[in-house]
Recover the amino acids of this structure.
């Protein structure tokens, strides 16, 4: 008698949380996470591949995300950093581009306002930002400045009475083709310090051009920005954004978000690879019955669990107020390196089907390369960690 078909949805550990990290959440947080997971399964996963193939952003999704009310879960809603991290991982698990859209608007942009704006500025700006009535972007990286932008910001700001005049260019700015506002970091020529400004994208002299021909995060509308004598009122200079040290307050937290994306990306690869291995038959049996396939699946799971375990502990340190920059750097470097291994093995399990987006894995594989690079490359984050453990900087 033939064995009954295996239902991949009803297998033990089908959710990839092999060590039950979600049990560390409160009951209310677990219920909220389930609601968000259901939303992503209904609203994001069914459309993600199509929009990714077309390189377009699903603008109709924004009001639904607003209704889901997920912006600023820690500062505004009082959730734990672990909950916020797991939510970001789940967004990535559904689609990395939509997770990146949220990471830019919520983490980088909203995080800049929350960390660096005055109380009066927060009161004026945050309600519309939280409600997604105003979409934000984050302008730090430049055409000639990536890893060295801390000391090499070329975009300038000149005080002119009650205004500032901004000139320069930014690159790889997510959401910038349709955002209402962008936080621009520019070097004040008077004291050579990097300062933060909230720029209305309708301002004369501001222009954003979509970057074409990407092989990753194709839904994200990355742009080249030019600032040609853009006038910004002094009231729109972020009161607490007066040096790159201030900027780092934002980046330390958002680097954690990208490390959580690496967890979500591995969960996505595990989901697709496990399901495919159970359902795909070769030589008259599921390929999951082959020892080498099981070995790869277990390695993907091991990488995922190791990455998640690191992030769970770092979330606890963050909530305790004792997380350090170098710990975020190590997390970003480690989890993204494991992610690269995991998605490569997942792609291999799917064979030829792993290079077409119809089976999702090709999209997961490609998007991983963006996560590996942004919010500090593997190499830079490694050197930040190395400096912390030796007391010697290897960064020129």
């Amino acid at each position: 008698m033939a064995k009954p078909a295996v239902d991949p949805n009803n297998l033990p550990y089908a959710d990839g949380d092999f060590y039950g990290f979600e049990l560390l959440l409160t009951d209310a947080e677990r219920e909220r996470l389930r609601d968000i997971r259901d939303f992503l399964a209904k609203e994001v996963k069914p459309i993600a591949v199509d929009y990714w193939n077309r390189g377009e952003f699903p603008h109709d999704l924004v009001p639904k995300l607003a209704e889901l009310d997920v912006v600023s879960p820690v500062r505004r809603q009082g959730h734990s950093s672990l909950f916020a991290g797991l939510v970001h991982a789940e967004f990535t698990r559904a689609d990395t581009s939509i997770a990146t859209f949220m990471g830019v608007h919520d983490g980088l942009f909203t995080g800049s306002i929350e960390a660096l704006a005055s109380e009066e500025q927060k009161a004026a700006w945050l309600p519309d930002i939280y409600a997604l009535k105003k979409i934000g972007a984050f302008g730090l990286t430049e055409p000639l400045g990536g890893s060295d932008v801390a000391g090499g910001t070329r975009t300038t700001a000149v005080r002119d009475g009650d205004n500032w005049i901004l000139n320069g260019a930014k690159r790889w700015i997510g959401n910038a083709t349709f955002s209402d506002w962008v936080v621009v970091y520019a070097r004040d020529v008077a004291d050579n310090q990097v300062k933060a400004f909230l720029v209305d994208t309708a301002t004369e002299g501001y222009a954003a051009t979509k970057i074409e021909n990407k092989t990753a995060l194709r839904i994200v509308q990355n742009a080249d920005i030019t600032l040609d004598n853009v006038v910004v009122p002094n009231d729109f200079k972020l009161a607490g954004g007066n040096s790159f040290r201030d900027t780092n307050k934002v980046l330390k937290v958002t680097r954690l978000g990208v490390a959580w994306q690496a967890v979500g990306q591995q969960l996505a690869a595990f989901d697709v690879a496990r399901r495919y291995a159970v359902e795909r038959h070769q030589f008259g049996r599921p390929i999951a019955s082959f020892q080498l396939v099981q070995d790869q699946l277990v390695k993907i799971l091991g990488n995922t669990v190791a990455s998640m375990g690191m992030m769970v502990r770092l979330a606890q340190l963050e909530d305790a107020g004792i997380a350090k920059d170098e710990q975020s750097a190590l997390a970003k470097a480690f989890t993204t390196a494991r992610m690269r291994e995991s998605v490569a093995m997942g792609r291999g399990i799917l064979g030829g089907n792993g290079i077409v987006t119809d089976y999702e894995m090709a999209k997961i594989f490609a998007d991983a390369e963006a996560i590996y690079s942004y919010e500090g490359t593997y190499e830079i984050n490694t050197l930040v960690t190395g400096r912390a453990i030796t007391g010697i900087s290897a960064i020129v």
Residues 236 and 315 are 32 Å apart (CA to CA). The radius of gyration is 22 Å.
